[in-house]
Amino acid sequence: MGFLDKLRKKFANEQQDVESTETVENEVEPVEDTTTADKEVIEQEVVQTQSEEQQESVVPEIVQSDRSDANRYLSGLSKTKVSFTQKLKNLARGFKGVDSDFLEELMIVLLEADLGIDTAEKLIKQVEKRSDKEKATTMKEVNDILFEEMQTLYNSFEDAPFIENADGPTVILMVGVNGSGKTTTTAKLANMFKEDGKSVMVTAADTFRAGAVDQLKRWADRIGVDCVEGRAQADPASVIVDGARFAKEHNNDIMIADTAGRLQNKVNLMNELKKIHKVIDKEIPGQPAAVWLVIDATTGQNGISQAKEFMGATNVTGVILTKLDGSAKGGIVLAIRNMLGLPVKYVGLGEGVDDLRPFDIDTFLYGIMGDIDA
């Protein structure tokens, strides 16, 4: 059984389990939905402007979904899937074997999916080598080889584990440029930890973007977690210190700190990020446990450049890809992994509070290729 066939079987079984659960739940008397009015109030109160810095300002309705992760990925990755699979199907129509012409066309498909030259070339070499060794004569066999190599590439790196602090709050530092969805992701991440039974608080240290502090405060109120905030234009490091002290005093398990969006060419802001890292370690030794870089998936290869700059300023330990549902270039996942060695920790697959999902390479590959009929 090929790689894609195994994934189809695995996720088909998951879907059956979800449908069985939904059948039972549908027999329960429905409860009146009172969230719509709340949503309207929150959205009216959130500060919005026309600038790029406030694209993430809407606080959506909080609705928990019964969809399996497989279905979330299929839905959220639909743009990538449609684009990618259609191009592979076009290749299949004229497939005469894995020759130089075919490999050149496959290379173009990978580049258009935003894998980048280095990553695409690495995969092409492996597809050529294995196709020859395994005598691949059909497009289905080539597809299996391609995605097995994608899986192998992603899993070829060793990641430092996320270890929670046994002696105090675990600190997660959120970094990223303005417009990446960082503040919204901070709140969604807090909600995820809260749903997992953790005592969570957030620190609104993005004091430079108009409306950012207010936005995170409203998110915090909505999901039911504490928020330490700083006044406009306050020193972000001082707000971080206040947040760390609050987390210690209130015995919080998790502190998630939202920082000001930083542009690659602003050295002073990068230096500020280093300062924040130092004050966290002073207040809570050994922290932060994680520094997660939020990247807008729709920015494509520019996200790689952003990551390199942040890696030069602090110890980035993982990436959160937002707006993956709005991009047809999901290959950025593999480019980040191959070029930077960073793991993708979570992906944004929609606007709902529970549409931030832990990243899984098998589910991702199934999401972009699970139903191809090559």
Automatic annotation (TrEMBL):
Catalytic activity entry: GTP + H2O = GDP + phosphate + H(+)
Q: Which residues bind GTP?
A: 176-183, 258-262, 322-325
Q: Where in the cell is it found?
A: Cell membrane; Cytoplasm
Can you give the residue ranges of the SRP54-type proteins GTP-binding domain? Answer: 343-356
Q: Which GO terms describe its molecular function?
A: GTP binding; GTPase activity; signal recognition particle binding
| One biological process term in Gene Ontology | SRP-dependent cotranslational protein targeting to membrane
What EC numbers are recorded for this enzyme?
Answer: 3.6.5.4
Recorded topology in the membrane: Peripheral membrane protein
**Sorted alphabetically, which CDD domains does this protein's record hold?**
FtsY
The entry's protein name is Signal recognition particle receptor FtsY
The record's keywords, sorted A to Z, are:
Cell membrane, Cytoplasm, GTP-binding, Hydrolase, Membrane, Nucleotide-binding, Receptor
Q: Which InterPro entries match?
A: AAA+_ATPase, P-loop_NTPase, Signal_recog_particl_SRP54_hlx, SR_rcpt_FtsY, SRP/SRP_N, SRP54_GTPase_dom, SRP54_N_sf
The keyword Nucleotide-binding is annotated on this UniProt entry: yes
Q: Which domain of life is it from?
A: Bacteria
The text of the family note is: Belongs to the GTP-binding SRP family. FtsY subfamily.
Give start-end positions of Acidic residues composition bias.
16-32
Its biological purpose is as follows: Involved in targeting and insertion of nascent membrane proteins into the cytoplasmic membrane. Acts as a receptor for the complex formed by the signal recognition particle (SRP) and the ribosome-nascent chain (RNC).
Under the subunit heading, UniProt states: Part of the signal recognition particle protein translocation system, which is composed of SRP and FtsY.
Q: Which HAMAP family does the protein's record reference?
A: FtsY
User: Region Disordered: start and end of each range?
Assistant: 14-37
Can you list the GO cellular component terms from the UniProt entry?
A: cytoplasm; plasma membrane
GTP-binding as UniProt keyword = yes
